[in-house]
Design brief:
Layout: H1 22-48, H2 51-58, H3 62-68, H4 72-91, H5 100-118, H6 121-131, H7 135-161, H8 171-188, H9 197-212
Helix pairs in contact: 1-2, 1-4, 1-6, 4-7, 5-9, 6-7
Length: 223
């Protein structure tokens, strides 16, 4: 077991959550582990944080923790899955506006605001850094990123097809740039650096407008 962690077999997990179903208790334990792991990853880095430290952070025995997650990589996968559900909220509204520029600005601002309020920038930065060294983490992080791209790309393609926007590069290159800009803004957490969100939106809109090059007022495809 990692770092030679050993706990007495008689050590038990705290008994709490009386009246909860087994599924509810499991979800509570998983959330407890994920929050502890996030703290450890931010504080010590992915490489520096051990399963032993995560156990200590959440007050759980190794045997209990390994029942839920066999490795740090599996914890990262669970963190990304939870983030995916949040991204569905941030980017799920993309199709609710007829303007591609408005859709992208609103989705990006929702994600930037959410990341700032959750204080997730440092964790995102650590996971991205680890993904450059660790193939398993890279697969998870890139898979998560691709899911977001898959929500954005159809909106831009439809806008191109109906002549609403005229990007200076093809859709694949445009998406690579859009995703890189979005990832950079999330990691840098500009509001935490004193940049007001309304100013972020002004600059972001100008940048997106320049990349998409609207050809005129957005047309309602249902009209």
């Amino acid at each position: 077991m990692e770092d030679g962690v050993y706990f007495e077999a008689t050590q038990a997990e705290p008994l709490d959550g009386h009246g909860q179903t087994r599924a509810e208790r499991r979800d509570q334990q998983i959330q407890r582990i994920l929050e502890a792991a996030k703290n450890c990853f931010v504080r010590s880095g992915f490489q520096g944080a051990s399963m032993q430290q995560i156990c200590a952070e959440c007050g759980m025995s190794p045997g209990a923790l390994y029942r839920y997650f066999p490795s740090k990589e599996s914890i990262v996968e669970a963190i990304c899955e939870a983030d995916r559900e949040d991204d569905m909220t941030c980017f799920g509204a993309l199709t609710q506006t007829h303007s591609a520029v408005d859709a992208l600005v609103e989705a990006a601002m929702a994600h930037i605001t959410y990341t700032h309020e959750k204080g997730s920038a440092a964790l995102f930065a650590e996971m991205r850094s680890e993904s450059m060294r660790n193939p398993a983490v890279r697969s998870t992080v890139e898979g998560h990123k691709q899911q977001v791209a898959d929500m954005i790309a159809p909106v831009l393609k439809e806008a191109i097809d109906r002549g609403e926007i005229n990007p200076p590069v093809d859709l694949n290159i445009l998406m690579a740039i859009v995703m890189s800009v979005g990832e950079g803004m999330a990691i840098n957490d500009l509001p935490a650096r004193g940049v007001p969100l309304d100013k972020v939106e002004v600059a972001l809109r100008a940048m997106i407008d320049g990349m998409l090059r609207p050809t005129g007022p957005a047309k309602d495809p249902k009209a």
